[in-house]
Amino acid sequence: MISSPITTSVFDLFKVGPGPSSSHTIGPMKAAFDFRQRLAHLPTEIQQRADAIHVHLYGSLSATGKGHGTDRAVVAGLLGWQPETTDPVAMLKLLRDPAALYPVPVDEKTIEVGPQQIHFERVRYDSPYHNTMVIKLTSGEAVLSEEEYYSIGGGFIIRKNEPEISADAYSVPYPYSTMAELKAQLTANTISLDELLMANEMSLTGRDRAEVNQRIDQILDFMHKAVRRGLKQKGILPGSIKLSRKAPILFQQAKGMSQSSDSFLIFLNAYCLAASEENAAGGIVVTAPTSGASGVIPGLTFLAKHRFHYDKATMRAGMLAAAMIGFLVKHNASISGAEMGCMGEIGTASAMGAAFLTRCTQAKADIGPIEAAAEIGIEHHLGMTCDPIGGYVQIPCIERNAMGAVKAYNAFLLATSGAASFQKISLDAVVKVMKATGRDMSTKYKETSEAGLALSATEC
After folding, report:
1. What is the largest CA-CA distance in the chain?
2. 137 strand-pairing partners
3. What residue ranges are annotated as transmembrane (predicted)?
4. What distance in Å separates the CA atoms of residue 1 and residue 5, rounded to the nearest whole number?
5. Average pLDDT, stretch 175-195?
6. Among the four residues 54, 258, 329, 373, which has the most C-beta atoms within 10 Å?
7. Is residue 97 classed exposed, middle or buried when 0-12, 13-18 and 19+ CB atoms within 10 A define those classes?
8. Which CATH architecture best describes the domain 20-159?
9. Where are the alpha helices (H) located in 333-396, listed in sequence order?
C-alpha cells in the first residue's frame, strides 16, 4: 500500500505562463486570482464595508520579487488574468506608472490597488515555506478577510488551512511515490513505463489517450515557439542589468559552422538561451519544471526534433519520462529555488532532460538507463546555489540553462554507455541527498540575492 502516491499531472508540471519565474510570477498570479474569486463569496455585509486590499510578500518573494515582477503578477491575478492566457506585453506595462491604480471588483463597487498596497516585507515571518504571501481585505485598520498562500515552485501554490484532498480523490491505477515503488509496479503488473505513465495521466485528468497526446504536442509547441522567438529577438533584456541577448548571435554562428564538430553544442546552447531569454523578458514559456529552468527541456526537445528528427510518438514518450523524474523530485524534495537552491530548478530540469533523451533513443522503455541518466543529472548539480543578480532571472540563470542542458546530454551518454547497471547511487538516494542539502544550505544562497554572484551587481 502506497501511503502518499504521486498524483501530479503532466500538465500541472508543464504549465504555460509568463516569465520570468514560476514561483515569483505564476504562483503569485494564481494566488491573487484565487483571492479575487473568494471575494465574491464573502457575505454582502463584509463586501460593503471593504475599502482596501493589501498584499504582503515575505521571504524570497520579498527579497527578489521586484526583479521577478511579483508585484505585476499580483496585480494581474487580482485583475482576473490567468497565466496561460496572459498577454506578456500587457503584463509588462502593469505598474510602469507608479501612480496607476487598478480596479478590483468587490460587490457592486471596485477597490483600487496600486504599488502602495503591495508590501515587500523584510521582517522574518513564521511560515513553513520561504515564498509566502498574505492578502488582506480591510476596512480602515480592521481586517475583514485574510488568506495566506505559499508558492512552492513550478507555479504550484498552497493555501494555508486548505483541507487536504484524500488520496482516494485522485486515485491512480499504478500508485508510486519513489523510483523503487515505480519499478515494483512495472514488474508486478508486467507493464511498460509508457503505458503506466499514460494510464495514470488519463486517470488523473479524465482525458483519453488521444487528448493526452494532443496536449503534450501543444506543450512542446509552446516550448518551441519560445525558442523560435528567442532566436529572432535582439536587444537588451528588461531590468537594470542591461543584459544583451546572445541567442541570435550564437544561432548565426552555429549555422556558419555546420561542418564543425562544435556546431552541435553551439546550436544546443543557442536553443536553450533563446527560451531562457524569452523567459527573462517576461514572454510566454513552459515551466519545465520551473520558469527559471524553462530553457533546458525546450532546448533539448528542439534539438531532438530538428537535428535527430524524432517523430511525435517518440517525443511524447520522452516527455512522459521527463515528467516522471520531475514528479519524483517534487514529491520527495522540492523544485523550488527558494527551498533547494538552483539544484532544485536546473538540477531537476537537467535530470528530466537526461531522462527525455534516454527514453527517446530506446525502442522500448528500459527504466534502468533512464534512472541512471536522471541520477547523474541531479548528482552533478548538488549544492548549486540560487544567487541571481538584482533578483532578475538573468545572471547566472540564462547561461545556467544552457549548462544544464549540456550536462543532461552528457548524463544521457554516460547512462547509455552500457554500464547503467554499474551505477551505485539510486535516484531515490540522490533525491534524499538533494533534500538534505537544500535543508542545510544557507538561506543567503536560496533566491534572496544576498550572497554569491548576486554581490557582483555593482560590477554589472
Report:
1. 73
2. 53, 145
3. none
4. 9
5. 98
6. 373
7. exposed
8. 2-Layer Sandwich (3.30)
9. 337-340, 346-360, 367-379
